Amino acid sequence: MDTDENKTMTTAATAARYTVAPGYRVNVRSGPSTQYPIVRALPLGATVAISCQKYGEWISGPYGTTKIWDNIAPGEYISDAYVRTGSDGFVAPRCA
What we know:
Layout: H1 4-13, E1 17-20, E2 27-29, E3 38-41, E4 47-49, E5 52-61, E6 64-73, E7 76-79, E8 83-84
Antiparallel strand pairs: 1-4, 1-8, 2-3, 5-6, 6-7
């Protein structure tokens, strides 16, 4: 019988990965806005797994203008305008 912990680990292990826009070193911020501090920068050619998504500051990038921000790790957000998700909407659950 599967436990909730096993289901979470399986889901995380098989989560879809999305490509960050080619030629961009995207800043990762501690929250869904450029007002939050930069915690690191993604390398060129990075892919990310999106844990959840939430609305934040409007950003324009290579994949359009959006206020959706992607949570890629605890306390780490990037604008969805720089991630090729194939959608203008949410592709992951909304962050709490």
